[in-house]
C-alpha cells in the first residue's frame, strides 16, 4: 500500500508540472499535453480505488491515517480534473472567438437586395387598421349597452310609478283585496322580467367585449 501511495503522489506532482507546460504550449502541442494529463488523472483515479481496497487489509491503528492520505489524493485528483476542464473551456471559447472573427473579416458585403430588405408595411397597416376598427366597435357596443341599461332603468321607474298610481286608483275605487293581490303579483312578475332582461343584456355585452378584444 505504501508503494502505491507514493507512486500516486508522484503522479499528482508530475501532473501539476504538466499544467505548467500546458499554459506555455501553443494550440498544436497543447492537445498532446492535455491527453497526457487526462491519462495521469485516470491513473490517479484507478490507484485511489486500489488504495481504498488495500486500506481494509491494514491494521486498525493505521486505517485512520491511511484514510486521510487517500482522501487527500482524491481531493488532488478532483482539483486537477477541474483545472483541466477549465483550460479546455477557455481554449474552446478562444478558438470559437477566433473562428467568428475570421469569418467576419472574410465576409463579403453585397448591395442590398430590394426584395430581401423590403418591409411588409401593408400587412402591418392592415393589422393596425383592424385593431382600430375592433376597438371602435367595442366602444360603440359599450355605448349602446349603456343606453339600453339607462332605458331599462327609466322603464323600471315608470313601472313603479304606474304601479303606485294603480294602487291609489284601486284604493279610490274600492277594489277587492283579490284584485289588489293580482295586480301586485303581476307587478312582482314584471320586476323579474325587467331584472332578467337587464342581466341578459349585461351578459351579452360582456361576451361581445371578451370575444372582440
TrEMBL record:
Family: Belongs to the GOSR2 family.
Residues annotated as transmembrane: 192-211
Annotated protein name in UniProt: Golgi SNAP receptor complex member 2
Primary role: Involved in transport of proteins from the cis/medial-Golgi to the trans-Golgi network.
Compartments (UniProt record): Golgi apparatus, cis-Golgi network membrane
Annotated Pfam families: V-SNARE_C (PF12352)
One GO CC term, this protein: late endosome membrane
Membrane topology: Single-pass type IV membrane protein
Originating species: Coptotermes formosanus (Formosan subterranean termite)
One GO molecular-function entry: SNAP receptor activity
UniProt cross-references to PANTHER family, sorted A to Z: GOLGI SNAP RECEPTOR COMPLEX MEMBER 2 (PTHR21230:SF1), VESICLE TRANSPORT V-SNARE PROTEIN VTI1-RELATED (PTHR21230)
